[in-house]
Structure to design on (211 residues):
């Protein structure tokens, strides 16, 4: 099979417009409630032009998932190899997800609610990326336990709890709220680090990391 020619800069821009428009629509109406005609109209394209870039909704949905997880996964991989303290690694992950959620809420909602609408091969690919991200978070927590930064009963449960809270942030995180996204990320980080005891408490919460 002949290699496909690389997309021009204009074609890449059009693809991004399509994906962004579709993410908004899927978040508002659900995947099944949106047609290719709807996507074309939202992206400002004629329907035949849309099919030039994507053969169907399934391929657009796949791109939304990839464009959401890849930046997170790339940053997480780099930090996992950096040797930074586990506490700082987890703190950065919280900031990553919340900032991306605030910037691309439609992507996160689609990523969270429409995984099973992917076609079989795409589903396996995206599920693998999600599992890798979870494993990186879990590995950081395990490392923190081993070096005395955290006291955690079950690192897998801790990782799932943290990620579960973050991936639903599109339901309540709003840019027009008084607290900035960075402030909210820090609040979540402190809650995760200290538990409900809070810093300076005499309770039995997790140990505070040393920075």
């Amino acid at each position: 099979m002949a290699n496909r020619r690389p997309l021009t800069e204009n074609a890449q821009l059009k693809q991004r417009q399509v994906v962004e428009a579709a993410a908004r629509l899927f978040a508002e109406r659900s995947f099944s409630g949106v047609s290719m005609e709807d996507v074309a109209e939202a992206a400002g394209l004629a329907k035949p032009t849309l099919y030039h870039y994507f053969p169907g909704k399934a391929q657009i949905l796949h791109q939304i998932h990839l464009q959401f997880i890849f930046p997170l996964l790339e940053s997480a991989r780099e930090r996992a190899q950096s040797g930074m303290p586990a506490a700082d690694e987890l703190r950065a992950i919280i900031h990553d997800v919340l900032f991306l959620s605030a910037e691309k809420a439609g992507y996160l909602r689609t990523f969270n609610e429409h995984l099973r609408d992917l076609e079989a091969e795409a589903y396996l690919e995206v599920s693998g990326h999600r599992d890798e991200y979870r494993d990186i978070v879990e590995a950081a927590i395990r490392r923190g336990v081993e070096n005395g930064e955290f006291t955690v009963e079950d690192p897998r449960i801790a990782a799932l709890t943290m990620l579960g809270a973050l991936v639903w942030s599109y339901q309540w995180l709003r840019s027009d709220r008084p607290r900035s996204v960075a402030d909210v990320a820090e609040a979540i980080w402190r809650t995760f680090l200290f538990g409900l005891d809070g810093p300076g408490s005499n309770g039995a919460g997790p140990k505070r990391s040393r920075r």
Observations:
- The radius of gyration is 20 Å.
- The longest helix spans residues 120-146.
